[in-house]
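User: I need a structural model of WYL domain-containing protein from Paraburkholderia strydomiana for a docking pre-check later this week. Nothing fancy, just the predicted structure tokens so I can convert them on my end. Input:
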Amino acid sequence: MTQSASPPNRALLELPQVQRERLSHIDFKLYFLGELRRTDVADRFGTGPAAATRDIAQYKELAPENLVLDNTDKIYRPTANFVPLFDHAPQRVLTALSRGFGEGIGEELKPMVRCEFPMALSEPKMSILAPITRAIHRNKAVRVSYTSIESGRSEREIVPIALVNNGIRWHVRAYDRRRKGFRDFVFTRMENPVLLEDSPITDEEKVDQDVQWNRIIELELVPHPAHPRPEVVMMDYGMPDGVLSVKVRAANAGYMLRRSAIDCSPDHSLSGPEYALWLKDPLALYGANNAQLAPGYRNPRDDSENKPIKAL
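Assistant: Understood. Predicted structure tokens for WYL domain-containing protein:
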């Protein structure tokens, strides 16, 4: 099977969104699971068998070479010439395969294929998460008890602007009214968040004023010079030219580089099998507040080794 989607179909683009969602689900089932039943559509969207039959017929009209009915068990299967009708985003596909694709709720969600992924050791409580996401959506401030490594427990008023997953834990990017600046606040260190309905947001507290959040850094990653098989690294990261260009917010750069074990030392001096990539130009991180989190990073303004970054 080919990996790229077919060119956008004009008739497909003119369909209502709900109809495209049903056709996308048909495309997904055929492409990634290799089979489709009428009940797959009817159960997923709560439609009757007749409506599911119409959806499959419409899909076949748009992509007649994509599926064939196996009369032995009345299951549609992809043909050898199958070309996906939709451009399926890899992260969404992997989430669907490992977590389920909208079938069931709560603990009923089940993976579509056998899979394994890292256990989450730190997850936010929903009673903490919900007020924060409401604040982001409605542009409100929150009063919260927060325990930081540096100063212990204190009452804070923060203005949340975005959720961030650094690969190990979730935190919220927010304006801290006490410190008068934007900071990262870890969910598991929060207690008793209260939405402040009558506390207006000032201009300095808005997301467009967060320089670190709005600054985009472009990083060029290359196979680590000490790696015994650079061609394998190039295959792993899809870099036929030997360079992987990544754009990341300055506020998240250190987290990303640490999670991915990128050697950011100027002389690629870190050793070990975990260091498959090297940051070609460590100066690209200059000015990023959490650059010290990047493995091996040395501030060009310092003659000595950097001190560890202070956590909130």
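Before docking, keep this in mind: Residues 17-33 form the longest helix (17 residues).
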